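Box 3.1 A note on notation
Throughout this textbook, protein chains are presented in two layers. The first layer is the amino acid sequence; the second is a token string describing backbone geometry. Keep the layers aligned when reading.
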Amino acid sequence: MLTKRIIPCLDIKDGRTVKGVNFVDLRDAGDPVELAEIYANEGADELVFLDISATEEKRKTLAELVMHVAEKVNIPFTVGGGISSVEDVEILLNSGADKVSINSSAVKNPKLVNDLAAKFGSQCVVVAIDAKQINGEWIVHLVGGKVPTEIKLFDWAKEVEQRGAGEILFTSMNHDGTKNGFANEALNYLTSLVNIPVIASGGAGNMQHFADTFIDGKSDAALAASVFHYKEIDITDLKKELKNQGIPVRL
């Protein structure tokens, strides 16, 4: 059985790590390169960096950050935020990123998923999906969760898989920052629907929540931010606990 992955997520704004609740009320959480190094040493399997202030001028800054991270860590890492072209991805992969995460740009231009998979391989392409449950339906949202679409989560997940995505990062906006656990019912259905790995995001508050998403949600990986940034959960301890519960992890 494939080992389950633990992935700290670093939301980057103006070169600093920040964290909010339900996508708002951001507060500073430290230097991204320092945090990346700490998490790699604690046993994180991968890292995700999302530049939430991404604009044209900041692309260069993001590429520089990627180079600094690549110098310090020896685990795979994914970079996202404002990526909208093959050229953007080329710069980030050449700077040292292992994968890229696309979100709004994939919805606006679905062919981008095909283009990136064709040029760089599916293993480099993560499609991030922010969705909110509204009247029983999971609806895809864009622009950091601010703009609702008419697209349904499960339809979109199947489409991006067909277009060549290698992985799906699903964030439940209802659960994000609440620390009440992941959206395991939706995750369970999602993982049964697609044949590519699904990363659970939004809602981690304690170690049991990670175990639950692997057991009940059938998630392939679990991503979290504030519980790691503010030292509420130590990754080494978390992995020992998961192993104790019979969940395959890399120690």
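The chain is about 40% helix and 30% strand. The chain has one domain: 5-244.
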